[in-house]
Predict the structure of Flagellar secretion chaperone FliS.
Amino acid sequence: MQNASYTADAYKRQQILTASPEMLTLMLYNGGIRFINEGIKFINEKNCIKSNKALLRAQDIMIEFMATLNMDYDIARQLYPLYNYIYRILIEGNMKNNTAKLEEAKTLLTELRDTWHEAMKIAGKEKNDNNH
């Protein structure tokens, strides 16, 4: 069984190493949503240690988003306060086991992810149209 786990981890590492920046961003959004879901699940199960661990990972993703924004662009200056807000409500939800705050963070992150995914599709279509 350990061998299967090792193989899965190696596959995941390879996906990350070969992903485009756009795909890495999508993967981070998906990871953030997954960790929030885990945090909510563990809060409902009264497992504070596991919920804290999952929510800290979601917070780390928000820190990564804020740290990597290129403030030369208007969109980055618009995203930063939103990312910061999500980060702050994740902290509050984690500290107070407040699933309503965590659901709000998840909703916002899901909307950002979905918008990003649509932008990737449009950019990919435009790239294909320009190549033909």
The chain has a mean pLDDT of 90. The CA atoms of residues 68 and 76 lie 9 Å apart. The chain has one domain: 20-123. DSSP finds five helices and no strands in the chain.
